[in-house]
Amino acid sequence: MDNSLGFLGNVLTPSLLDIFKCAKFIFEIAGLKGNQLAFALDNVFKFYTGKSALEAGEVDLIAPTQCQLLTPKQLAVHFGFSNTKRGVKIINYLLEEAGYQYKTTHNSWEPSELGKPFAVLLDTNKKHSDGSPVRLLKWNSNIIHVLDGLLVIRKGRFNLAKT
Question: Using CA atoms, how far apart are residues 90 and 158, in angstroms rounded to an integer?
Fold first, then answer.
C-alpha cells in the first residue's frame, strides 16, 4: 500500500496531524496509555514518514514498572530446569497450588486476586484457530521470591535436582 496520504481519492486528504489525532483517539479508546500509546503513535508516524521519531530522538521511555516481566518458560530457565517443558508445568502447577493463578474453562491461565499484583495479561497480535485473540500471561520478576519458597518446600515432591 502506498504510504502517501492520497489514498482517499476525491475526499479531502487529511494532514498527518489529523491522522495522529484520530489514531490517538482510537488508541485511547482501546486503552492504550503511557509508553504503549507513545509506541503506537510512533508506529503511525513511521508508517507515513518512513522514520521513527522515537528512534531519531534516541528516546528511551521509562517503563511503568521497574521489574522484568517473565513467562513461565523464562521462570523455568531461571530456576535451572534443563527440561523447560517439564519446568513450565511445575511452575504453573506451583502458581496454581499457591493460589496465584487458575485455569479457565477455555484451558488458559488467569491470575487470581492473590496473583494479580504479580501478573500482567498481554493481548498479542495473534489469533487462535477459532479467531479469538491470543493472550499471554507474564509474571513480574518479584514472583521469583514466592516461587523460591514454594520450590524449597516441595523440592522432594518434584524431584527437582537438575530436572
Answer: 8
pTM (predicted TM-score): 0.62
Residue 19: count other Cβ atoms within 10 Å of its Cβ: 16
DSSP string covering 111-154: E-TTTGGGEEEEEEEEE-TTSPEEEEEEEETTHHHHHHHHHHHT
Asked if the structure places residue 73 within a domain, the reply is yes
In which domain, by residue range, is 43 found?
5-56
Q: Using one digit for the tens of pLDDT, what is the confidence trace for 40-61?
A: 998 999 999 898 888 888 777 7
Cα–Cα distance for residue pair 79/162, rounded to 1 Å: 10
Q: How many domains does the chain have?
A: 2
Same domain, 76 and 137: yes
